[in-house]
């Protein structure tokens, strides 16, 4: 049993057998390659005991391995026992050095890593993540395939990638591995699908004609795996023509042009004719982009002069300081209210680059299935905003974002202009809001000094209330005549405050007004467009009619899933919050969340204003008479206090209503102005209301009649515009504490 070995072929000599840890073995191959190139110890030095930096055999059989786990280098203790297959000497349950099976250093490193991951029944990872754990080097995942329209993928291009990595790889400052996607046997040309490979060599060769060949020496870590059988080894001339692409095609890896010139044999490295081992092969750069899905780069953090680290917990059931205050927001599409956010400040007069690395920690073993320690049910991403370091509440308007990946790490490369402050937002999709809190580390790597710190929450004091748009509580948008039927809420402030009011939908919408409960997690064009407004009101009462001066703040255009408004320096008092949908025929549960800059006392905060008909008797009638003035008799057996609302849906008509008792006008609303246009200021066109009307029984005041008077506005104050016929068609609703009945048909009346 030895821990040290000399030779130049160690990386190409390691192999994976029946354990599904190709990413681990590929990582070891890439790391040992760097050491063999003379760039110093990188992976051999993470095991103890040592002598002068060289690992030695432990007399106790115990070893300590240093791995980067959950934001720090941590100690993993193992013994020297390795698993064996009972009665089967042909297969190994650990990584093996084929040239010298007694060399067990790779096996011990593999054992330590798999111990941290839960055991030898390892479900697989990616080699960028594994190398990050072994070395702490910055992982970068580049996609070689994908939809070019998805800018978040930041698809790599052959020449630009080669220029980034070639010199750096020669200097030993980047490790490289590859990953395939799903491949059928016939389309892989010897490559294995959903498998990781190590890059153990790069070479440029210039032919006599001046053509540059860019080649990668790739190692298949699987003992039983094949090697690349593509050009120049392919026997099929048609395939040769298809895969041998000219230099111009390197900028367009997916073109698949058949008009390329024949390959230059002298452009191939000499080693190509003699593969270094049965599991290593040369492949041209263009073929890498054609047949592999991903390339994983791990960069030496010493390339950066400055590093800033933050470690944080993110409980998806409690995204802000107040426990469970905004749990409904954690998976609302487009909502960033409770997301961890950081500001990146470049105070220098010169622009500079920065890399932001987000790393998700391993979860508690008992919280997740052992085969799912990284919780691959979810995805993470980073967003960049030009928000001057202020908190961001919606995902729209970003400058740049990374793809949502199920890997534990994601990297965002940023160019920071001089004297600029950016906001970085951590985002997730479909993470399990499990029993345990999700833990992360976020790191910024910069060439010049910068400031990198959490963004302060300007509205730390939270109040929430849940409600629903239903058939009896929905009134449409701010232009609707029935806007006052929308759900409303009273917010009381004991002292001046800055407010943020958010409105979020947390269930799929319905058109039948019934309860719906399935959470919305993906964009759905059928989901309501929503809006929230903060209104001046008489002590936080229900608002029935809108005028411009009633708006204290509103969320602007109607949006889906989540919207918000901000109100600065709001005086102490009571106000009304209105939640509305663009149309009045959509129903869904929702939540209103108010964030305040000052504490909300128990007597303040957010409370539901009851619907207008709550606890009251309702009487409803439609009038279809084409008459200017119509009336109907009301009947009560007891004194009733009520509200009367008349809605006329025809545009250009104004209303006034009155209640006559025994032939005498008692209550009126609407009125007439001097120019003959009906409707006092404060009334919505086509809607007239009477509030707090005392309706007395006939035995006390005689007959009681409701009179509705209409006036057409033809756009001419002089009255010269031609008259048009009244179309009738208004609706009357009476809400009262005792029963009120319509006691006759509608009749035309002269007033």
Automatic annotation (TrEMBL):
GO BP annotation list: proteolysis
Keywords on record: Hydrolase, Protease, Thiol protease
Compositional bias segments (type: Acidic residues): 234-269
Entry keyword annotation includes Protease: yes
SMART domains to which the protein is assigned, alphabetical: calpain_III, CysPc
Location of the Calpain catalytic domain: 13-301
InterPro entries in the cross-refs: Calpain_III (IPR022683), Calpain_III_sf (IPR036213), PalB/RIM13 (IPR051297), Papain-like_cys_pep_sf (IPR038765), Peptidase_C2_calpain_cat (IPR001300)
Region called Disordered, residue ranges: 227-273
Any one GO molecular-function label of the UniProt entry: calcium-dependent cysteine-type endopeptidase activity
Pfam families on file: Peptidase_C2
Positions of the catalytic residues: 22, 195, 220
Family: Belongs to the peptidase C2 family. PalB/RIM13 subfamily.
Protein name as annotated: Cysteine protease
